[in-house]
Write a structure and sequence with these properties.
The structure holds 2 protein chains of 2 kinds. By secondary structure, chain A is mainly alpha-helical. Chain A contains 6 helices and 3 strands, in the order αβααββααα. Chain A has a 3-stranded antiparallel beta sheet with strand order 1-3-2. Chain B has a 3-stranded antiparallel beta sheet with strand order 1-3-2. Chain B is elongated. The chains are: A mainly alpha, B mainly alpha.
Chain lengths: ~160, ~120
């Protein structure tokens, strides 16, 4: 555990297909949470950045998408839960996404998104290949010869693949 | 502007404060202390307990820390239905969380003892 508390960034999947589902879940959960805590149900992009760690300029794209899907309404830069969004219910929503995020199998750590989605598994594989090529190049530069070691595929590369 | 937004736009928004007696690194430990005092805790009351213990942190920070603790299986949470208002997220410590809480308490005690010793030394000199 990092005592500084700086390791609490919420980890999103890498593939775009899952990212939209992921951020939809996260944004709606924050809005349900704020509502439950008595803070109303409006958010703007900077608030999403503070709560979820997603860059505000990216978060606003997800918010607009949720407006298109009728989960939210928008007034200027503020977004509110729609009646449809409320009707979905926090528990129903959480349950449907719990299934999506359950780990199953694979080479990565147990909580890696690749266990939940083919897209994410592809993204992980692509990242591993890219990483291993980079490591090979580094070894070549260091030793002056090509290395055939393609790594252990444990995602222990310090790039957040532990999904902690 | 829609009616829904008009109805919600005047509601209180989360606010942040800049003054804090303790550094932010104590957030996790203080959350553990607050979580240990109840079987089931709500986000806002946890944030209030942390503030009462000298760490001013905005609700976003508490939310993210709670999510992080949940992802590490130190906490579990569920939506608690309410007859009178919206559902609320309620947090409970897991067995691993209780062990982490004991570590957090020990860590805070150690910090207190070191600070006390340092302050005594400073006042003697």
């Amino acid at each position: 555990m990092n005592p500084s508390g700086e390791d609490n960034l919420i980890t999103a999947p890498k593939s775009s297909a899952l990212q939209m589902l992921y951020w939809r879940s996260e944004i709606l959960q924050v809005m349900y949470w704020l509502r439950g805590e008595g803070f109303g149900d409006i958010v703007d992009a900077p608030m999403i950045e503070r709560f979820l760690g997603v860059d505000a300029s990216i978060g606003v794209g997800y918010l607009d998408r949720l407006v298109e899907e009728d989960y939210l309404t928008v007034d200027g830069s503020f977004y509110a839960l729609s009646e449809f969004g409320l009707k979905q219910g926090a528990r129903e929503f959480a349950e449907s996404f719990n299934e999506l995020t359950k780990p199953a199998h694979g080479e990565c750590s147990d909580d890696c998104w690749c266990h939940a989605s083919v897209d994410e598994a592809d993204a992980c594989m692509a990242h591993r290949i890219e990483h291993n090529h980079a490591m090979d190049a580094k070894h070549m530069n260091a030793s002056g010869e090509h290395s055939h070691n393609h790594g252990d595929h444990n995602h222990d590369d310090g790039h957040g693949h532990g999904h902690s | 502007m829609t009616g829904t937004v008009m109805a919600t736009a005047n509601k209180k928004k989360p606010t942040s404060s800049t003054e804090s007696v303790l550094p932010r690194r104590f957030l996790r430990q203080l959350l553990f202390l607050a979580l240990g005092s109840n079987e089931r805790s709500y986000g806002y009351e946890l944030a209030e307990a942390v503030r009462e213990n000298g760490l001013t942190v905005d609700l976003a920070g508490v939310y993210r820390e709670l999510r992080a603790l949940e992802q590490r299986d130190l906490l579990t949470s569920e939506w608690e239905p309410s007859q009178n208002g919206p559902d609320r997220r309620v947090y409970m410590m897991t067995a691993a969380g209780k062990a982490a809480r004991a570590e957090a308490v020990e860590s805070l005690r150690s910090a207190r003892d070191h600070l006390s010793a340092a302050l005594e030394q400073a006042s003697d000199s």
